[in-house]
Amino acid sequence: MPINPTNTLTSITGRTGRELAWQENALCAQTGPEFFFPAPGSSTREAKQLCGACEGRLECLEYALDNDERFGVWGGLSEKERERLRRRGAAGGRGLAAGTVASRTA
Asked: What is the dihedral of CA 7, 9, 28, 32, to 10 degrees?
């Protein structure tokens, strides 16, 4: 019986291939992982700049928040920045705050 990668992905992540399509065109897919997972104490500035130019930035950030990604730069935010965003969202009684994300993109 052949394995259908879309069904497997959906059963593991709860997301469809369509919901993860942003990964195919993401700018990070064209660079090495060390760029987005720098050594402790290293700068994340370059990774964040690349994220700022990426069309999939918001989907990436949403994915990281939904999946509790603890390491690396996702959607233009570092681990500490995502944690602050989570705390702010929890304190406000809502998930990913559009106003907070919009203020970071401006």
From this structure: -120
Cβ neighbors of 92 (< 8 A, separation 6 or more) are none
The residue type at 93:
G
Q: What is the pLDDT of residue 32?
A: 80
φ, ψ (nearest 5 deg) of residue 14: 80, 5
Q: Which of 26, 23, 25, 46 is nearest to 34 (CA)?
A: 46
Q: In this predicted structure, what is the pLDDT of residue 81?
A: 95
65, 82 contact by CB (below 8 A): yes
Nearest to 72 by CA among 12, 103, 28: 28
**What residues in the chain have per-residue pLDDT under 50?**
1-13, 94-95, 97-106
Helical spans, DSSP H, in 26-106:
33-36, 45-52, 57-66, 79-92, 98-105
Count the residues in the chain: 106
**CA of residue 83 relative to chain centroid, distance:** 13
